[in-house]
Amino acid sequence: MAKIATVITDMFEDVEWTSPQKALKEAGHEVITIDIEAGKVVEGKHGEKVTIDKGIDEVKASDFDALFIPGGFSPDILRADDRVVAFVKAFMDDMKPTFAICHGPQLLITAKTLKGRDATGYKSIQVDLENAGAKFHDEEVFVCQKQLVTSRTPKDLPAFNREIVKLLQETM
């Protein structure tokens, strides 16, 4: 099955990590957490704790089949690090499956990978997505070019989880 890189740091939206991670693991995929340094414990906005598997300097996009970006404040924090931005950009440039929910697309905006793409995200980043060249869709989930899966909020998780698992089944 797929080996999925998950870029995550403090202040992630807990359920936007736990729910997709559970769906991916139940479908037989391996989920690897990545932040600035391995072994660090990061904490979600509501107290969920995650131990980081790999530091950003230990990985490259070619080591993975897909990318997952949970929302919350985590993507905004991570996009300040050029190494994380380059890592994310590589997935999009290689057209590898990429999954981003809520504020997750902020990393894709900073990586300058959304021009001409269709996406959704949290309402407060709609203008940012449009300014980055994306066509915004106010839908619970949007799949673009059988590669990019985006959703808006935690209430969209059932559709998001369904589509990320389905895309991996179709591409792996």
SSE topology string: EHEEEEEHHEHEHEEEH
Tally of helical runs: 6
Distance linking N and C termini: 7 Å
Portion of residues in beta strands equals 15-25%
Spatial strand arrangement across the major sheet: 5-2-1-6-7-11-10
Low-confidence stretches: none
Structural class: alpha/beta
Shape: globular
Count of strand segments: 11
In helices, the fraction of residues equals 25-40%
Output the radius of gyration.
Answer: 14 Å
> Which sheet architecture does the biggest sheet show?
7 strands, mixed
What would you note in describing this structure?
Helix content is 33%, strand content 23%. The chain has 172 residues and is of the alpha/beta class. Strands 5-2-1-6-7-11-10 form a seven-stranded mixed beta sheet, with helices on both faces. Helix 1 packs parallel to helix 6. The mean pLDDT is 98.
Q: What tags apply to this protein structure?
A:
single chain, 172 residues, alpha/beta, 7-stranded mixed β-sheet, two-stranded antiparallel sheet, 23% strand, globular
List the helices and strands and how they pair.
Layout: E1 3-7, H1 14-26, E2 30-35, E3 41-43, E4 49-51, E5 54-55, E6 66-69, H2 74-78, H3 82-93, E7 98-101, H4 105-110, E8 118-119, H5 126-131, E9 135-136, E10 141-144, E11 148-151, H6 157-171
Parallel strand pairs: 1-2, 1-6, 2-5, 6-7, 7-11, 8-9
Antiparallel strand pairs: 3-4, 10-11
